[in-house]
């Protein structure tokens, strides 16, 4: 029940347009725009909820109550915050490099949004079933650092500059472990298509066959989304808010939205690559596949938040040293062990 | 038929429109009160000293250079990993040699202190 609700809506709409005599190309375009708007709404609603959830988790970790004034149990807190940010002045500064300064918040949301296009939210529920999905993820995800750098540099603010430098150094260093960790999964499946990667986990999830890759991916994911313990980029006590220091109002809100969109994205990718995507564990198939995906994604997001409010921030030298001296050699070792392991596995002939 | 990349372009276009729309919408709502102080750089409350756009610490650039090398390696590793199961032992050993050369490079950078944060 409910299993085919979204695919059913899509094919129903397609049939309806077909019946109305719409050409195939326009039929596809209209269908894609509908999917796109659905994904956009999904991101926005979840980001609203995640900000609230983050504050609640933080509160309970620290034995507080958290937001509880606006709306029932404080649920409308984030909506009120967005309203406030929308009505705040976009201050103008005479020292900015104005073009990249404005472009950064406009473009910052684009890379994560583009990656959501290839995520399989359920069986046959990827907006674009791309044959090189995983590679596309790696390629587009790395664009974020350029945009953050543009914003930080154009602000003409010393804190922004230090923050932007740290963003580039950190994201560049941890992108390698992130991408190399996913390589083990690719070796096991022999495909870059995300749906096929999920299908390959029908018997055993890759978290069990690639535990090291999962850990590396998790740590690198924390660093890629600039979250504590890797939040040097916006270390409040030292550089105010890093590259976002000069941004006010909606400009800041776009960066904030993107942070939560990225957290969700990294968790969703983790679900696809290691936790069996939308596959139901223990044969519990009466729960629809998209709900399984959603549940697994939220478990990962919760762990992200848990880590954030448990560990203190690292120093820059520890951060870079850990990335280059520990994670990258471990990644290469993982690739080697996976390769040898697959040959042994084949030789034994299980 | 809409190709995959056509659909990606749609996502790109709507993403940019969404970002621009958010900023423009806020322009409709928010007040404009420009003052001399508000147009200053937001640092510590006192006037900023010296230019911001200066030559920066080279440590960051060493990491960027290393990143380029390893990222190119990753581009070669991905097609190999996709075809790993059908390529056979020869390709596996070749890739081990390839990775080994890169590890030597990493070791050299390590030895020369490029990975130390000073």
Automatic annotation (TrEMBL), chain A:
One of its GO terms (molecular function) is quinone binding. The lineage of its organism: Bacteria, Bacillati, Bacillota, Clostridia, Eubacteriales. The chain crosses the membrane at residues 29-52, 98-119, 131-151, 172-192, 204-223, 260-284, 290-310, 322-345. This is NADH-quinone oxidoreductase subunit H. It comes from the Bacteria. It is found in: Cell membrane; Membrane. It comes from Desulfocucumis palustris. NDH-1 is composed of 14 different subunits. Subunits NuoA, H, J, K, L, M, N constitute the membrane sector of the complex. One of its GO terms (biological process) is aerobic respiration. Its EC number is 7.1.1.-. InterPro entries: NADH_UbQ_OxRdtase_su1/FPO. Belongs to the complex I subunit 1 family. It is a multi-pass membrane protein. Keywords: Cell membrane, Membrane, NAD, Quinone, Translocase, Transmembrane, Transmembrane helix, Ubiquinone. It holds the Pfam family NADHdh. It catalyses: a quinone + NADH + 5 H(+)(in) = a quinol + NAD(+) + 4 H(+)(out). GO terms for cellular component: plasma membrane. NDH-1 shuttles electrons from NADH, via FMN and iron-sulfur (Fe-S) centers, to quinones in the respiratory chain. The immediate electron acceptor for the enzyme in this species is believed to be ubiquinone. Couples the redox reaction to proton translocation (for every two electrons transferred, four hydrogen ions are translocated across the cytoplasmic membrane), and thus conserves the redox energy in a proton gradient. This subunit may bind ubiquinone.
From TrEMBL, chain B:
Pfam families: Oxidored_q4. Keywords: Cell membrane, Membrane, NAD, Quinone, Translocase, Transmembrane, Transmembrane helix, Transport, Ubiquinone. It is an enzyme of class 7 (translocase). Its main location: membrane. One of its GO terms (molecular function) is quinone binding. It is found in: Cell membrane; Membrane. InterPro entries: NAD(P)H_OxRDtase_bac/plastid, NADH_UbQ/plastoQ_OxRdtase_su3, NDAH_ubi_oxred_su3_sf. The chain crosses the membrane at residues 6-29, 60-81, 87-110. One of its GO terms (cellular component) is plasma membrane. It is a multi-pass membrane protein. The keyword Transport applies. It catalyses: a quinone + NADH + 5 H(+)(in) = a quinol + NAD(+) + 4 H(+)(out). Gene3D superfamilies: NADH:ubiquinone/plastoquinone oxidoreductase, chain 3 (1.20.58.1610). Belongs to the complex I subunit 3 family. NDH-1 is composed of 14 different subunits. Subunits NuoA, H, J, K, L, M, N constitute the membrane sector of the complex. NDH-1 shuttles electrons from NADH, via FMN and iron-sulfur (Fe-S) centers, to quinones in the respiratory chain. The immediate electron acceptor for the enzyme in this species is believed to be a menaquinone. Couples the redox reaction to proton translocation (for every two electrons transferred, four hydrogen ions are translocated across the cytoplasmic membrane), and thus conserves the redox energy in a proton gradient. This is NADH-quinone oxidoreductase subunit A. It comes from Desulfocucumis palustris. The lineage of its organism: Bacteria, Bacillati, Bacillota, Clostridia, Eubacteriales. The gene is nuoA.
């Amino acid at each position: 029940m409910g299993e085919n609700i979204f695919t059913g809506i899509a094919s129903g709409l397609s049939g309806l347009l077909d019946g109305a005599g719409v050409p195939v190309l326009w039929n596809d375009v209209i269908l894609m725009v509908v999917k796109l708007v659905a994904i956009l709404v999904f991101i926005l609603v979840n980001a609203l909820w995640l900000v609230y959830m983050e504050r609640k988790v933080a509160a309970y970790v620290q034995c507080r109550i958290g937001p509880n004034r606006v709306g029932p149990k404080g649920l409308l807190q984030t909506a009120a915050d967005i309203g406030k940010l929308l009505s705040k002045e976009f201050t103008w500064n005479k020292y900015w490099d104005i073009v990249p300064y404005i472009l950064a918040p406009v473009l910052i949301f684009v890379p994560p949004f583009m990656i959501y296009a290839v995520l399989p939210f359920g069986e046959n529920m990827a907006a674009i079933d791309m044959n090189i999905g995983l590679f596309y993820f790696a390629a587009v995800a790395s664009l974020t650092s350029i945009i953050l750098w543009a914003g930080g540099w154009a602000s003409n603010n010393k804190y922004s500059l230090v923050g932007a430098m740290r963003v580039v150094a950190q994201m560049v260093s941890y992108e390698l472990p992130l991408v190399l960790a996913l390589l083990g999964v690719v070796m096991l499946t022999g495909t870059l298509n995300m749906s096929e990667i999920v299908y390959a986990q029908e018997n055993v999830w890759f978290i069990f066959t690639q535990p090291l890759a999962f850990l590396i991916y998790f740590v690198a994911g924390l660093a890629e989304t600039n979250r504590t313990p890797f939040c040097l980029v916006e270390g409040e006590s030292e550089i105010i808010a890093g590259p976002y220091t000069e941004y006010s109002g909606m400009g800041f809100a776009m960066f904030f939205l993107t942070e939560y969109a990225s957290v969700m994205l990294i968790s969703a990718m983790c679900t696809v690559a290691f936790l069996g995507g939308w596959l139901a564990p223990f044969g519990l198939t009466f729960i629809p596949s998209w709900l399984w995906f959603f549940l697994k994604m939220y478990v990962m997001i919760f762990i992200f938040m848990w880590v954030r409010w448990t560990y203190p921030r690292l120093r820059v030298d520890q951060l870079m040293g850990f990335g280059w001296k520990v994670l990258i050699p471990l990644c290469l070792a993982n690739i080697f062990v996976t390769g040898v392991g697959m040959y042994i596995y084949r030789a034994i002939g299980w | 038929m809409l190709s995959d990349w056509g659909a990606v372009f749609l996502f790109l276009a709507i993403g940019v429109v969404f970002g621009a729309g958010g900023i423009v919408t806020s322009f409709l709502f928010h007040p404009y009160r420009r003052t001399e102080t508000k147009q200053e750089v937001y640092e510590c409350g006192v006037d900023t000293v010296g230019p911001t756009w200066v030559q920066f610490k080279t440590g960051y650039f060493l990491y960027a250079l290393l990143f380029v090398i390893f990222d190119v390696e990753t581009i070669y590793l991905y097609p190999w990993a996709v075809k790993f199961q059908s390529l056979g032992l020869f390709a596996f050993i070749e890739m081990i040699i390839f990775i080994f050369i890169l590890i030597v490079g990493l070791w050299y950078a390590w030895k020369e202190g490029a990975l130390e944060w000073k």
